[in-house]
């Protein structure tokens, strides 16, 4: 009789343990893997911003010197290159500062997934804007040729170049970053299914 009285309590405790363990495993694995994938994302972003900053620095230096040494449309081509990349170097510097100030270990599981997904969307949005830059540049270039305007022609050539670079940059960065997001999402789905499975079974 004693065994029969204690059996329900033991069964309940055992069932509660089985319900809690998957959540604990999910939390531990989620925290570890979140940090791992978030760190991969931040390292890739850092490399990307260093590359963007290097491109911007090169264009500012060459554009400034080219402006004073060149004539006709080339003069305005270099002027736009330098001015355009003042913005790029500001973006790169601000991004690198934010990365250096972010504590990856403090990012939560859901927050990390959201951050990675938002970056992917931003890169695709930027790629679309880059096409607009190239189209605008082509229009200015053509208009400059028709109106014999060195300024419009030079600015147009510069926008085509800068837009093409940014399009390739954003697209390549997206292709390198989106698999990181995908891996974390797949991990999240697998862990959720495993947890639900335990709960259903027990």
Keywords:
single chain; disordered N terminus; mainly alpha
Explain the overall architecture.
The chain is mostly helical and 202 residues long. It has one domain. 94% of the residues lie in helices and 0% in strands. Helix 1 runs parallel beside helix 3. The radius of gyration is 27 Å and the shape is elongated. The two termini are 26 Å apart.
Show the helix and strand layout.
Layout: H1 2-69, H2 72-101, H3 109-147, H4 150-201
Helix pairs in contact: 1-2, 1-3, 1-4, 2-4, 3-4
Structure in a nutshell:
The chain is mainly α and 202 residues long.
Strand-residue proportion: under 5%
Using DSSP, what is the number of strands? 0
Range of helix content: over 70%
Number of helices: 4
Q: Which residue ranges are poorly predicted, with pLDDT under 50 across at least 5 consecutive positions?
A: 1-6, 16-31, 192-202
Residue-averaged pLDDT:
83
Q: Sheet bearing the most strands, described?
A: none
Structural class: mainly alpha
Note the gap between the termini. Answer: 26 Å
Silhouette:
elongated
Q: Domains counted in the coordinates: how many?
A: 1
Task: Please compute the radius of gyration using only Cα atoms.
Answer: 27 Å
Q: What is the helix/strand order? A: HHHH
